[in-house]
Design brief:
205 residues, alpha+beta, seven-stranded mixed β-sheet, three-stranded mixed β-sheet, 4 helices, 10 strands, 25% helix
Length: 205
């Protein structure tokens, strides 16, 4: 079984984190331990490799960064839990679809632990609650190793989502845990649960 290093990084700037993730992936060897980073970002829009500029309706003063992950435009901001998964898929015995399914099921499991019923959609990666998107997925695989990952809306300012077509879907409504729960919830607390669930779903336990 491969080793796994998990880092809880707190609130970190997007670009240096992106560069660190790229460097880690480019420099890793077949013996490098896999890593999962759990963190939050200051406000930023990221545009995936298939991203179309028309889905950026009114970004305003929020920076827009082009990245190599799959998918269209999304928003990251404080109160959203972002998880980057740098996994040697071959060594872990996973295909890309296996990784996506494990991520989606881990999110569903964690939300269920809070009493929130969520589900993935076959034709639109991510996790949804009553048709509204609560978590987004976007991955890149290079030399059999994944990077980028997922974003779960926990307790954040949702208004920047109104200034884009989230994930390229006009009118797609975004949800967050805060609005679905009776008690306050923090990204740090959710991160602890999601770390454990990802370990189980990805075979690190």
């Amino acid at each position: 079984m491969a080793d796994l290093v998990v880092r809880h990084l707190g609130l970190v700037e997007y670009l240096p984190t992106l560069e660190a993730m790229r460097s880690f992936t480019a420099e890793r060897s077949q013996w490098t331990a896999d890593e999962i980073w759990l963190l939050q970002h200051p406000p930023v829009y990221t545009q995936g490799q298939a991203g179309k500029p028309e889905h950026l309706l009114a970004p305003g003063d929020i920076p827009v960064i082009q990245v190599e992950r799959g998918g269209q435009v999304t928003y990251h901001g404080p109160g959203q839990l972002v998880v980057y998964l740098m996994i040697n898929l071959r060594r872990q015995g996973l295909g890309v679809r296996d990784l996506v399914t494990a991520m989606e099921r881990a999110l569903v499991d964690v939300l269920a632990s809070y009493g929130v019923e969520a589900a993935p959609k076959a034709d639109a990666p991510g996790v949804y609650v009553n048709g509204d998107k609560i978590a987004s997925l976007g991955l890149r695989v290079r030399n059999g190793c994944s990077f980028h990952g997922l974003a779960l809306n926990v307790d954040m300012d949702m208004s920047p989502f109104w200034r884009i077509n989230p994930c390229g879907y006009a009118g797609l409504k975004m949800a967050q845990m805060k609005d679905l729960l009776d008690a306050p919830v923090s990204p740090d607390e959710v991160a602890q649960r999601l770390e454990q669930t990802l370990r189980e779903r990805l075979g690190y336990v």
